[in-house]
Amino acid sequence: MKDHRITVRISPETRRRLKAAARRGGRRESDLVRDAVELQLAAEEGSLTAYEHAKKAGLIGAAKGTVWDLSTNPKYFDGFGGS
Length: 83
Prior knowledge:
The protein is mostly helical. It is 47% helix and 0% strand. It is built from three helices and no strands. α1 crosses α2 (29-46). It is elongated and about 70 Å long.
């Protein structure tokens, strides 16, 4: 797997804190940043709604052979909700 590089701008104060934390832990700054990104993404994934989980899994719109506008076209609502 090939790693990808991105550029992130941080304030001088954040850079100072990052360098200090890396020194204290005997780690590279890039390792700390990668870990922080992973933690943030894991936290967001843990708070996804059922819809967001289904969309991420590719389940939204996965029914084959149906009309594409079933949930938005008013012609399909005739008689819906009537008694």
